[in-house]
Write a structure and sequence with these properties.
206 residues, alpha/beta, Rossmann fold, five-stranded parallel sheet, 30% helix, globular
Length: 206
């Protein structure tokens, strides 16, 4: 059989990757460090000034007004100093005008209008006459509100509430009426009683 002129092709043996003896060590991945616990947050304190849902806020009672407080102190302390009594000369016809001037001086000294109560023994003060035209209820309601100087007749002193300063205008009435008005006004005085009238007549009544 004739031989082929072509020589057989010899394929070179290409060496493949060598098998490493033993297992290759995989590179170690560094472990993440464990987080260090930080300081615990301080719990916030509840604001007691704000109402908690479902729980009513504590009610704060307002303190008593100054006239009411002084009247209460006088009752609670029987040994409290007696009120100061001041006599201001005035005739029956001018007693109301002199009393108004005394009220103006008190307000100039810093007294609150709610601290002053004015009584008359004769004709009602013009302010009281005007306010009574709106009815008794509206008139006495102003005393209960206690926002301003209050004027009343001495015969109705039992219906009034005591105040630190009382001004009594002896502008008429009998000696007996004036004699009853003085202790009634004094009983409702916290610290000072100003009596406007005839000094000779008043000294015999005091």
């Amino acid at each position: 059989m004739p031989h082929s002129s072509e020589e057989p092709k010899i394929h070179p043996n290409v060496p493949g990757p060598r098998n490493m003896t033993g297992t290759a060590r995989a590179p170690q991945v560094p472990r993440p460090s464990a987080p260090v616990p930080g300081p615990r947050p301080t719990p916030q304190r509840a604001d007691r000034s704000r109402p908690v849902p479902g729980r009513p806020a504590p009610a704060r009672s307002a303190g008593p007004s100054r006239p009411a407080q002084e009247a209460a102190d006088a009752k609670a302390d029987p040994g409290k100093a007696a009120p100061q009594i001041q006599l201001v000369e005035a005739a029956d016809a001018t007693a109301v005008e002199v009393a108004d001037e005394a009220v103006d001086r008190l307000l100039d000294e810093g007294r609150s209008p709610a601290d002053v109560l004015v009584f008359t023994t004769g004709e009602q003060h013009p302010w009281a006459q005007h306010e009574l035209t709106f009815g008794e209820d509206a008139y006495w309601r102003q005393q209960a509100e206690g926002d301003d100087v209050f004027y009343a007749h001495a015969s109705a002193a039992e219906r009034t509430t005591g105040r630190p300063v009382v001004v009594l205008a002896v502008n008429g009435g009998t000696d007996e009426q004036a004699a009853r008005a003085l202790p009634a006004a004094l009983a409702r005085t916290g610290s000072r009683l100003i009596v406007c009238g005839d000094p000779g007549r008043l000294r015999t009544l005091l």
